[in-house]
Amino acid sequence: MNARADAPRGNARGRLVLGWSLVGIPLAYGVVETLVRVSRLFTG
């Protein structure tokens, strides 16, 4: 087997990007919100 056979192609790559976006964007938002609230908690 080579790397080309294992790489996602065309539609599969788009679905992979979409899936990670659906998970990553809300996760990033939650991390940012948590950091903002924690900074307010400790800075007064």
From TrEMBL:
Transmembrane portions of the chain: 12-32
Which protein are we looking at? Uncharacterized protein
Kindly state which keywords UniProt assigns to this record, in alphabetical order: Membrane, Transmembrane, Transmembrane helix
Origin superkingdom: Bacteria
